UniProtKB/TrEMBL annotation:
This is Multifunctional fusion protein. One of its GO terms (biological process) is cell wall organization. Substrate binds at residues 628, 808. Keywords: ATP-binding, Cell cycle, Cell division, Cell shape, Cell wall biogenesis/degradation, Cytoplasm, Isomerase, Ligase, Nucleotide-binding, Peptidoglycan synthesis, Pyridoxal phosphate. Belongs to the alanine racemase family. The modification N6-(pyridoxal phosphate)lysine is found at residue 530. It is found in: Cytoplasm. One of its GO terms (molecular function) is ATP binding. Its main location: cytoplasm. ATP binds at residues 120-126. It comes from Ktedonosporobacter rubrisoli. It catalyses: D-alanyl-D-alanine + UDP-N-acetyl-alpha-D-muramoyl-L-alanyl-gamma-D-glutamyl-meso-2,6-diaminopimelate + ATP = UDP-N-acetyl-alpha-D-muramoyl-L-alanyl-gamma-D-glutamyl-meso-2,6-diaminopimeloyl-D-alanyl-D-alanine + ADP + phosphate + H(+); L-alanine = D-alanine. The active site is at 530 (proton acceptor), 760 (proton acceptor).
């Protein structure tokens, strides 16, 4: 409970409007998650400014506002009037973050509970909860909310501290040097608990030793007479113990526990009398899963004994400690399975603990779904490789989601896990679909369930996979992590720069399945991945389409295929373009199908195949009217002779015959049908000679949709896979979705006087005072400069016209009519923003080109996130 008088006294704030309420249930800094009666705190963050959502918070039932005076003074008179009429207590301070810290420090001093601070690499939230649960059996105990553990989250959480609380159990986290010391200065702990030290957040600390030193400042920050609780056998913790300090060190020793048992009911162990401080051995039980939670129980036991609880009291209270959402929490899954939800976060130690728990629990099949582990710095690749090698000892199937986790998949294969039991995916839906297929095929007996364990860093949002595997998906909001409205809208992955592409892999998956539905089960689908999958990212797209109905991939060049093979893509790949003789061996090494249309190329490929003792797959290209690569269709004798030559040349296997339509994206199919007729004549001639290859194909996206008689054995969709219309005349059917969004952020907002030139060449002169926004995107990103540019972009759901010339790395837009524009605001270049939409098709029309060119020209320096 927050009292207005306490808040004003602690922060030195001024009461701009008195409001109706003088007490508030809690702080809230996200208007989307605000509960009526809470005090909204407007916080300036890295990606947004809470001051932009003051009215939203007011309309959602906030009982008060804590805002910065400068921001309040910048509000329009209309907004200030609405706030005054709302009768909300409005407190003005210089800095809301510092004000929250001042309040937290003051309220702890006012109510003076015994503060227990818990930190560590892993297990700190579970340990904090276990300590609080045990103490709450005898004392009024406050615990910090979830993992609100930094200089913003902890003060927000302390809004619920009350005078009655005798103990405050607080979690301390860090992502930069000095943060633990700053948190200790804030909360002044009486007891410090360090769970362990293991690799995480190394991108911020450089080395494990530096990170250990940061965690160790918990002990150096304790005042004389305080107590330090630590794992006696943690190798990296022991050097942090300074015996000269005038504090009491209370070690707990997991290695002393014996008779450890893990079941679906929880973990139990026995500890000897000397460890229990009792006259006889003591059995500890909790409902936590996994042998690693012996440390959790012992840490809670050690703290509780210091706080005066008797062994039997602690023993009874530990049985009430249950798994938190996302932390090895068992949930009913599809097909009678058991979900072991460990999706809160991941680093090597917690992932290995989860695998160990999976192995220890009674199960039929054991399936692990592993997402990327972030925050490991230079240790990242090696950590994923070691985890994959370890997984072989624990799982029957390994499904991975993400590029880093793919390293684990390859390591698992190399360590002996059967290749068909290792499935690499790039989307939540594909990971879940792979698991569902396994569970459906191998349904367990009535006595034992198949188990699916899910793990990944917060950025990977692996709870989305868990939701798709729940027996009752409607229970997700109560059972899974990150289910609030705010989290549902957050993309956690941070791009490498403030201009980026968002790729919706679920849209690509859905579009692929829809193409497959169009052509039916007997016709194969080759997905075109030319130009880095039309700018969408070839590797992730390849994995996605292969999981959703495509059985072959197409690329323009041998070099485009190389990264796919290096990443473990084993599906057939056809090179559409010219392969010079000197590149034939590389094509064979990569096991690519080669397009041929000349005898000299066929002979060069044959020689390369003989030299490498390999067989080269060949597709013959027929030019039926496109005028590009291929043998002209009217040269029937030449085509028949060339096909016969290929079949006779050693080392070559004739796999396919194809053509390409030039105008299938027009409503009038007359010319396309003429091409089809010419191609069918070639096919008939080959069939008469018994030379028809097994795969005949002709259809691009447009023809796939409009010319079913040309489907033959395989179709080659490109643009449709990415949810883009083949042309203004041939639109995609209902249900296809665009997969790409192109975004940036406002880097500056300022007024430019009338009569001033904008950008290079002063091609635009302001006619009036103009509010402009500078955007960090330019023609070196594929954001066209000339002969015409994009025209406008979307900011706050409104079009903002581009002013002057687009620069290499920046451009300028007019936001005079969007005065709420601020630095850091999202800008949409392609995609949706609220009800507004700027599609690739609209951009193409403005530029006088095709949507395909628009997306394919977005350069590689623009990071892709999904």
């Amino acid at each position: 409970m927050i009292y207005l008088e306490h808040l004003l006294e602690a922060t030195g704030g001024s009461l701009r409007y008195p409001g109706k309420q003088t007490r508030f249930a809690a702080f809230s800094h996200d208007s989307r998650q605000l509960i009526p009666g809470e005090l909204f705190v407007a916080v300036r963050g890295e990606r947004s400014d809470g001051h932009n959502y003051i009215l939203d918070a007011t309309r959602r039932g906030a009982a008060g506002l804590l805002i910065e005076a400068a921001a309040f003074n910048a509000l329009s008179s209309e907004v200030q009037s609405e706030l005054e009429q709302a009768s909300l207590a409005t407190i003005l301070v210089a800095d809301t973050r510092l004000a929250l810290q001042d309040y937290a420090r003051a309220i702890l001093q006012r109510w003076h509970p015994t503060v227990i601070a818990v930190t560590g690499s892993v297990g700190k939230t579970s340990t904090k909860e276990a300590i609080a649960t045990v103490l709450a059996s005898n004392f009024a105990t406050f615990r910090s909310w979830q993992n609100y553990n930094d200089l913003l989250g902890l003060p927000l959480s302390l809004g619920k501290l009350e005078e009655r609380h005798e103990y405050a159990v607080l979690e301390l986290g860090c992502d930069h040097p000095g943060e633990i010391a700053a948190l200790c200065r804030l909360v002044q702990p009486h007891i410090g608990v360090l769970t362990n030290v293991s690799p995480t957040l190394l991108q911020y600390f450089g080395s494990l030793e530096n990170f250990a030193a940061e965690l160790g400042t918990l002990f150096t920050s304790l005042a004389d007479g305080s107590y330090a609780v630590f794992n006696q056998y943690d190798d990296l913790t022991r050097p942090l113990i300074d015996s000269t300090r005038r504090i009491t060190f209370l070690p707990f020793a997991p290695s002393q526990a014996y008779n450890v048992k893990v079941s679906w009911e929880g973990v139990s162990c026995e500890i000897p009398p000397e460890a229990a401080g009792a006259s006889k051995p003591l059995t500890l039980n909790s409902r936590l899963l996994g042998a690693h939670h012996v440390s959790t129980m012992l840490a809670a036991y050690t703290v509780a004994r210091r706080c005066g609880l008797q062994p039997e009291e602690i023993q009874a209270a530990l049985t009430q400690v249950t798994p938190l959402p996302g932390r090895l929490n068992p949930l009913p899954g599809v097909y009678g399975s058991q979900i072991l939800d460990d999706t809160h976060n991941a680093q090597p130690a917690s992932a290995l603990a989860g695998l160990s728990a999976l192995k220890a629990l009674p199960a039929g099949l054991r399936i692990a779904i592993l997402g990327d582990m972030h925050g490991l710095g230079s240790y990242e690749e090696n950590a994923h490789r070691q985890l994959g090698q370890a997984a072989v000892r624990y799982v029957d199937y390994l499904i991975t989601r993400g590029e880093r986790a793919a390293i684990s998949a390859e390591a698992a294969r190399q360590a002996g896990l059967a290749p068909r039991h290792v499935i690499v995916t790039s989307s939540h839906e594909d990971a879940a679909r792979a698991a569902r297929s396994i569970l459906e095929t191998h349904q367990a007996s009535a006595n034992v369930s198949n188990v699916v364990w899910l793990k990944g860093s917060e950025e990977m949002r692996m709870e989305r996979v868990a939701e798709l595997l729940l027996a009752q998906p409607a229970d997700a909001p109560e059972q899974l992590v990150r289910q609030t409205p705010g989290w549902k809208q957050i993309v956690v992955t941070r791009p490498e720069r403030p201009t980026w592409l968002e790729i919706d892999l679920s849209a690509i998956a859905s579009n692929t399945r829809k193409v497959k539905d169009v052509v039916g089960p007997k016709v194969r689908v080759l997905a075109s991945l030319k130009a880095d999958a039309y700018g969408h990212g070839a590797l992730k797209v390849a994995r996605t389409v292969l999981q959703n109905g495509a059985s072959m991939l197409g690329v323009a060049t041998v070099s485009e295929a190389s990264p796919l093979r290096e990443a473990g893509i084993s599906a057939p790949i056809l090179v559409f373009g010219y392969v010079p003789s000197w590149q034939m061996r590389e094509a064979l090494r990569l096991d690519l199908a080669v397009t041929l249309y000349a005898s000299s190329s066929a002979q060069a490929l044959s020689r390369a195949a003989l030299a490498l003792h390999k067989t080269a797959r060949v597709h013959v290209k027929v030019d039926s009217g496109m005028g590009r690569l291929g043998i002209r269709s009217e040269q029937l004798d030449e085509i028949v002779g060339f096909v016969r030559e290929i079949k006779e040349l050693p080392g070559l296997e004739l796999e396919g015959l194809y053509t390409h339509f030039a105008v299938a994206d027009m409503l009038d199919l007359t010319l396309t049908r003429r091409q089809l007729s010419r191609f069918q004549q070639v096919l008939s001639a080959l069939e008469e000679q018994g030379l028809r290859p097994p795969i005949v194909h002709a259809c691009n996206s447009a023809a796939t949709l409009s010319l079913p008689e040309a489907h033959f054995d395989m179709v080659r969709p490109g643009i449709a896979i990415y949810g883009l219309d083949p042309s203004p005349e041939v639109r995609l059917p209902e249900g296809f979705r665009a997969a790409l969004s192109f975004k940036t952020q406002v880097s500056q907002v300022k007024w430019v006087p009338a009569g001033e030139g904008i950008s290079y060449g002063y091609t635009y002169i302001t006619e009036r005072p103009t509010l402009v926004a500078i955007l960090p995107v330019g023609y070196a990103d594929g954001f066209r400069r000339a002969p015409t540019n994009w025209g406008s972009v979307l900011i706050h759901g409104q079009e903002a016209p581009i002013l002057g010339r687009v620069c290499m790395d920046q451009c300028i837009v007019d936001v005079t009519h969007i005065p709420q524009t601020r630095m850091g605001d999202e800008v949409v270049l392609i995609g949706r923003q609220g009800e507004a939409r700027l599609s690739a098709e609209q951009v193409a029309e403005r530029l006088g080109t095709s949507n395909c060119e628009v997306v394919a020209e977005i350069l590689a320096r623009v990071p892709r996130v999904d």
